[in-house]
Amino acid sequence: MARMLLGTMNGYDSTKVHRRSPSEGRDAAFRELMLHDAQTSLSHELGRLIKTAPPGQETSVRAQFDGFERLFARFLQETGPSVKWEDIATLPNDAIKPYNELQTNFSKDAIKSMLDKLVVLKLNGGLGTSMGCTGTKSLISVRNELTFLDLTVQQIENLNIAYGANVPLVLMNSFNTDEETEQTLRKYGKMKVEIHTFNQSRYPRINRESLLPVARSCVEDTDSWYPPGHGDVYESLNNSKLLGKFIEQGKKYVFISNIDNLGATADLGILNFLLNPRESPAPEFVMEVTDKTRADVKGGTLVQYGGKLRLLEIAQVPKDRVDEFKSVSKFKIFNTNNLWVSLEAMNRVVENHSLHMEIIVNPKTLDNGLNVIQLETAVGAAIKNFEGAIGINVPRRRFLPVKTTSDLLVIMSNLYSLKHGSLEMNPKRSFPAVPLVKLGNSFTKVKDFLSRFASIPDMLELDHLTVSGDVTFGRGVSLKGTVIIIANHGDRIDIPPGAILENKIVSGNLRILDH
Questions:
Q1: pTM score > 0.85 for this model?
Q2: How many other C-beta atoms are found inside a 10 Å radius of the C-beta of residue 318?
Q3: How far apart (Å, rounded) are the C-alpha atoms in residues 121 and 168?
Q4: Inter-CA distances, 291 with 323, 345, 397, 426, 463, Å
Q5: What are all long-range contacts of 270-274, with beta carbons under 8 Å and residues at least 24 apart?
Q6: Which of the residues are catalytic?
Q7: Which terminus of the chain has a lower count of CB atoms within 10 Å, N or C?
Q8: What is the band of 43 on the pLDDT scale with cuts at 50, 70, 90?
Q9: What is the secondary structure of 137-156 as a DSSP string?
């Protein structure tokens, strides 16, 4: 990932670093001196900030700042692109294991034994802003008045009851979601699931010009702080003491996934593959990947680099290679962000500070016009730090993220049924592919989206839906094949109740008026 020096942040490029040559007045000695000064100045400012921490939180804040200082030091020192395109090698044949080769039949006792060694961790730091909602995203209702969090708790409780197991659910919150999540957890008090929470780190935003923290105090408003991406899960889980606790309890693996991926359920086949390997030793890290479609061309993929598996993200790709990266024929799989990690291996790489993930430099402009940067990491990028890491090519049903209302429409439709908190494809669907749905700006906010459907259409035979403009749907509408509905500016289209649209393009103006 690119690194910029003090004074070069304008014109920032995420894949290249512009360094002035000695002929432009910068020699190596001056550069080293400037880097040292920047690091020293940051350390001084962080020391000052620690003194403003609320009583009793000094140790926690110091641990977080230690992680930030290490990240900042790398930001200053690492130069050039994070990967050299010509050094990317073809994946070995054994790098990606087919899901259908996993064992799937187990006795009830065997399942209980496996589940008792598992921890399920959901990344719960996000807000619902991409869907026009305020507050914690996991508390948005997605199906039958149940939220992402409701469905997750149901899934884990069902496993624990069915097999007499004790699978704990762990939520990694951010300072944006912690309070609201903790209040909501009270309603699960009588359910058979042990729920733990911890907060990912709270890092200071950095002024792009001075490279110093914007915050003047640890209790300042949230604009001065940010959660540093889900790659922070490793250190924050360790800092919370939960990592050590689970290891002491005999837990072996943690299954990490985004809470808005409704396909990310605990999988017994993968768990057995890790706990009972036919060939020793078991992988310390498994990334679930799935076949790439045209809708997934920007998703990160696995490559062989420097003799290890590595996650390659589009931001790391040289501009003249982006089309090649997006190629479905060359890079055939992408990362679902469903990850299985050995707890002991995680403890090892955190404790010896060998955890190295590419830094994502995220420029922002605050409401007051101040330009800042955020240094972030992605959880999947840690794959290169673990021994024996592999990918498992899983069915698409394990990747059902709800990022937009277009995704929400699919999840709410009769394409799926709900069983113990898990979504199952309707057996009446003649083929397993999920339809491609693109809803326009009038549907972006959940409230607006819901107001435009008298009921969710029948989508069992739908392949592709595009809707643009001021469009509403009556009750009992059926959509089949490819349907495109476009209301031009100033026009409105009301799809009448009971309408069946099959391979249709609807445009112009169609109003249904009450009388």
A1: yes
A2: 14
A3: 8
A4: 18, 28, 11, 21, 18
A5: 270/102, 270/340, 270/392, 271/114, 271/115, 271/117, 271/118, 271/340, 272/102, 272/103, 272/106, 272/110, 272/114, 273/97, 273/102, 273/103, 273/392, 274/340, 274/342
A6: 403
A7: C
A8: very high
A9: GGGSEEETTEEHHHHHHHHH
